[in-house]
Design goal:
By secondary structure, this protein is of the alpha/beta class. The chain has twelve helices and 19 strands. Helix content is 30%, strand content 25%.
Amino acid sequence: MPLSRVGPVTGSWERATAGRAAPLALVDLEAFDANAADLVRRAAGKPVRVASKSVRCRALLRRVLDRPGFRGVMAYSVREALWLAADGFTDLFVAYPSADREALEAVAANGHAAAQVTVTVDSAEHVAFLAALRRPHPLRVAVDVDASLRVGSLHLGVRRSPLRSAGQVVAVARAAQAAGLDVVGLMFYDAQVAGLPDSSPAVRLVKARSTRDLLGRRAEVVAAVRDVAGLEFVNGGGTGSLHVASRDPSLTELAAGSGLFGPTLFDGYRSFRPRPAAAFALPVVRRPAPGVVTVFGGGYIASGPPGWSRSPSVLAPRGLRLLRSEGAGEVQTPLRGRAADGLGIGDRVWFRHAKAGELCERFDELYLVRGDELVDRVPTYRGEAANFG
């Protein structure tokens, strides 16, 4: 494809990956590093725990953790945390409850892993489940607290923890201690603030009200739990809410990961705009009609509520769009637009994914580029046969 038909960024990517077979995925290191610096700026002095599910590549996790302002990993699987701990990663917080007895017992059986891995509870049921495991070494736990907004009967936010009040959280913390678990942390994820674009005045109102509500409720919960447990961390926020969560003195650290890649779901935020750092290229394999081309693959639909916002978006050449009647397909994706007639078989179309780390579930490796230079090829979790769900 003539470079005149792509933008300056994708033109550099074309030159850096020239001769490499597509489909391929890449990360632009200049954009990745700029996004990392912006996350630290927005965190305003609080350390940022990097969310591994949004990266899913050990080389890039190391790269960001080597930067000032980042500390620790927010993992999504106990087996993932074990794998990372064995590779030298430290301070691993598995931020989702697990029912994987074998993996949890492997953490408790390994002194190093037990010292580095913290697992999540949000109920007496979780506590009882962990208490029944073989535990040669004590398990570290953090209590997940519901950070959603309640307005009357409305629940605005995600359905995660059932715990909201200080009394409820203290009761679970006490039960965990009585079961021989070491309560070291609290977590508050404000999905209705961090995960929603600023798409309307109503959304912005929900975000502002939720932030005010959380400021008071978090302080009450944290103070109550500190009376009964020696907390090492209180985690909150996400890429979309760092700038507001950083103002809460109750939080000792923040969490972020998606903002490193800058997927399309962040395009609607007004307070910040990450640079597109991750992309994938698919080759043209058909020209079924004037103004239409078909590329190989492309059905990389992001998780969440189904809809067009979860589909990949064409980045270059400009003027191409998905067909509403077909969308992004499992093995081929038709595209319509004026740019189609200038494309030949084998030319590339560049896309951005709607979310961040899920892209790595489709590719075994990432090309790391800087300008026109191909810097490295690194495996994703998938490329290391490390699939955790």
